[in-house]
Amino acid sequence: MHESFSSALNEMSVADAVMQLASGTVELGLEDAPEFARWCWFADVLDSDWGLTGRLPAAGGDVLHALEHVAGMCRTSETKALSPDAWRAAYEATDRLAHSSAVTSSEATYLALSAANDIALECIDERHPEFTVAIALALESLAACAADSAVARCWIARALTEWTNRTHPVASGPRMGEAPPITDTRQNASTVSAGCGEKALLRVSGNR
After folding, report:
1. Residue 92 CB: number of other CB atoms within 10 A?
2. What is the pLDDT of residues 84-130, one digit of tens each?
3. d(CA 163, CA 138)
């Protein structure tokens, strides 16, 4: 039984916890949730006030548009499968943008676009993706945006709280094709212990 990511975040540095998630040593338990909840959460990780578009400092309009576009594709996928060609186009667009000079000069922006790019890449071949690497990249981007490790923990804890809110109770949630329940996502994240002094983050191996 793998350790949960939230436990790892309490026990180690943010960088190490994210690396453990990317390697599969710790897990979010994505496979235990209904598919609509996964797609919804993936979308909001990219595009919400607590996600990447809400945290990236002064990101350009093209970057925000790219994140919003892939998030919109995830929301569509809650009830309708998109074609591999649609995902391939999103992959190619985010790949070009991620390697532009304006993006590569910002670690947080590059990681954010890499997360969107990895989502699109996985969806080309997979009908039921888990996005383990993409989520790790997105959380690493959130941490790179934060002023210090305490803020990074708070922001990542908010994302984890959103995940928990959408997956409990799992048994009563609608199935694929049914309308998801209306969830109030404005509540604060549960407290996660601070104290991590490391601010430098390690890049996880994604789509490069």
Report:
1. 13
2. 999 999 999 999 999 998 888 899 999 999 999 999 999 998 888 88
3. 14
